[in-house]
Amino acid sequence: MERISKVLGLGVLFGGAVLAFTLVSGTPQASFAAGAPPPAQQQTAEDVYLDKCAVCHAKDGSGNTAKGRKVKAKDLRSAEVQKMSDKDLLDAIANGKGKDMDGFKDELGMPMVTALEKYVRTQFGNK
Ligand code: HEC
């Protein structure tokens, strides 16, 4: 009987240690891997860009994707795009541009639209 309770005790200790370790090392990535979707408000502009924009504008901003070439998405790194004013870039992202780019302000909200405009500047431009 003593033996059994000793084994049980160890089991509880071990279980506790595993739980503690999981809690301490439980990074958000680990829980995504387990299938939990990332909470929307924690998405960075980069996450959203890759999710919503890269299909046309490409990961590197070049517009060099099958869809980007089809709709003629301009190279976001080009002087032509980077010389546009913040207001014009914001307007394009918020309200859409031309016949092929839809606006994103309703879907993403203005704070994320603003973050995406900054991302387009910092990632693909020089500021
Ligand atoms: C369906 C393809 C498509 C998607 C998705 C898309 N765009 Fe565009 N985007 C375009 C096209 C095409 C233009 C150019 C329209 C024009 O100049 O007539 C454009 C224009 C722009 C511009 C203005 C610069 C320019 O080339 O005129 C910015 C900035 C931009 N997009 C950012 C984004 C961001 C940020 C997202 C994601 C939230 C996004 N786009 C999603 C196709 C797309």
Could you please describe the fold and organization of this structure?
This protein is mainly alpha-helical and 127 residues long. It folds into two domains: 2-33; 40-124, Orthogonal Bundle (Cytochrome Bc1 Complex, Chain D, domain 2), CATH 1.10.760.10. The protein is 65% helix and 3% strand. The protein is built from eight helices and two strands. A hairpin with a 3-residue loop joins strand 1 (96-97) and strand 2 (101-102). Helix 3 packs across helix 8 and helix 6 crosses helix 8 (110-124). The structure holds heme C. The site of heme C has 22 residues, from helix 3, helix 4, helix 6 and helix 8. Heme C (HEC) binds at residues 49, 52-53, 55-57, 67, 71-74, 81, 89, 92-93, 97-98, 100-101, 104, 116, 120.
Strand content: under 5%
Number of domains: 2
Overall pLDDT level = 84
Spatial strand order of the main sheet: 1-2
The H-and-E topology, N to C, reads as HHHHHHEEHH
Helical content class: 55-70%
- Poorly predicted residue ranges: none
Give the helix tally.
8
Major sheet: 2 strands, antiparallel
Oligomer, anyone? Answer: single chain
CATH superfamily of the largest domain: Cytochrome c-like domain
Could you give the count of β-strands? 2
CATH class of the largest domain: Mainly Alpha
| Shape designation | elongated
Straight-line N-to-C gap: 72 Å
What ligands are attached or bound here? heme C
CATH-derived topology of the largest domain:
Cytochrome Bc1 Complex, Chain D, domain 2
